[in-house]
Amino acid sequence: HNINNNLVEPYFQAIMCNKTDQIEKYEALMRLFDKNQNILLPNVFIHKAKKSRLYQKLMEILFDTIIVYIEKYKIHVSINLDYTDILNPQIKKTIISKIKSKKIGSFITIEVLESEKVSNFNLVNDFIKEIRKYGAKIAIDDFGTGFSNYENILNLDIDYIKIDGSLIKKIDEDIYLNLIKSIVLFSKQQNIKVIAEFVSD
How far apart are CA 168 and CA 176, in angstroms? Predict the structure, then answer.
């Protein structure tokens, strides 16, 4: 019902530059509304949507809505894809064709969720190369959790590493500070920009 009525909305979370305090882009987070217009968070509906095969339609509606915002406000937007999205030929085809036809690649960053499920980096790299043809940027999301393998990062052509918020929350503890420093140093040496999640002060 919600899908038929297009009750899928992106919620935009600002990503700010720590040098200028200016908003550089927004991360689009999928939100669904129930029949009473209450907001449903992904942990409520994503798993059910995937089981009932409605997830693909949700992604299409979300991406179409994001395109409307990009065209209207000329904002740069990040959108999350996990490994199964990249393996899904229809989702992959839809995103690439829309980026190409609407000429919005320079406004899009694809955030690939770091996951232990990633088993074929060639497939991920093929997707990244295809997306890059149209000017899109690539980020690795939630870095520092899961497998967090530096070697895997070296094998992917990416623009950003997003440090997982669970680490940033504990940055005042020496052991986490040291881990974050190592991620930042590695990223700088590879000319990869760093985004910190859950910055609280």
Answer: 8
Q: Is 141 exposed, middle or buried (0-12, 13-18, 19+ CB in 10 A)?
A: buried
Q: Residue 35 burial (CB < 10 Å; 0-12/13-18/19+)? A: exposed
138-155 pLDDT, tens digit each: 999 989 876 567 887 888
**pTM of this prediction?**
0.91
* pLDDT (tens digit per residue) in 50-97: 888 889 989 999 999 999 999 999 999 999 998 889 889 999 999 999
User: What is the SS3 assignment for 46?
Assistant: helix
What is the C-alpha to C-alpha distance for residues 190 and 127, in angstroms, rounded to an integer?
A: 21
Asked whether the beta carbons of 107 and 133 are under 8 A apart, the reply is: no
Q: Residue 103 — φ and ψ, nearest 5°?
A: 55, 50
Residue with tokens 């991920």, as numbered in its chain: 124
Residue 91 to residue 60: CA distance in whole angstroms: 8
- Which two tokens mark 29? 């987070």
Instruction: Count the neighbouring beta carbons within 10 Å of the beta carbon of residue 34.
Output: 13
